[in-house]
Amino acid sequence: MNVVFSGSFDPITSGHMDVLTRASRMFDHVTVTVMHNARKQGRHLFTLEERLAILVEATAHLPNVSVDTFGGLLVDYMAQQGKGIIIRGLRAVSDYEYELQIAHLNRQIGEVETIFIMAATRWSFVSSSMVREIASYGGDVSEMVPKASAKALREKFAAEYAERAARQAAEATGSPA
């Protein structure tokens, strides 16, 4: 059985990877689909191409996972690909309320099913937006994201990471920053 795990993945987190890895054990093939929303143009930290590259690197160890992109309704992508099951990860009850509405809509307009996989408890607090915020201040997010995401975040926020490292070095030596 082939399934689709869709999202913006800006960037992919360890919670996403937990859900994806577990889905890859349950299903024959998982397509990770980066959804491109033209109305959100310019609101992502990473470009579509950067997100695809991060995902390809982060999923390279999963032989039955592929990466794709689509702009438009997920149900249209599902119909084009001949797939009928969407995988969604849940972190908390608040995720479930939103995802339940989307699952019902997708079922009604596209006759696709949604299977929810709970993220491991250790990732229940991790979101892409929180990771981006921490990284924007040069904070260490290496435990919250796969290596490919951590590398891309360090490159994107190189100045902030350098500034934070300089501050920490100054504090360690007792000299002014």
UniProtKB/TrEMBL annotation:
Lineage: superkingdom: Bacteria
GO CC terms, sorted: cytoplasm
GO biological process: coenzyme A biosynthetic process
Positions with a binding annotation for ATP: 8-9, 16, 89-91, 99, 123-129
Enzyme nomenclature, EC number: 2.7.7.3
Pfam families: CTP_transf_like (PF01467)
Cytidyltransferase-like domain ranges (all copies): 4-133
Keyword tags: ATP-binding, Coenzyme A biosynthesis, Cytoplasm, Magnesium, Nucleotide-binding, Nucleotidyltransferase, Transferase
Residue numbers binding substrate: 8, 40, 74, 88
General function of this protein: Reversibly transfers an adenylyl group from ATP to 4'-phosphopantetheine, yielding dephospho-CoA (dPCoA) and pyrophosphate.
Oligomer status and interactors: Homohexamer.
Protein name: Phosphopantetheine adenylyltransferase
UniProt organism field: Deinococcus ficus
Phylogenetic lineage: Bacteria, Thermotogati, Deinococcota, Deinococci, Deinococcales
Gene name of the encoded protein: coaD
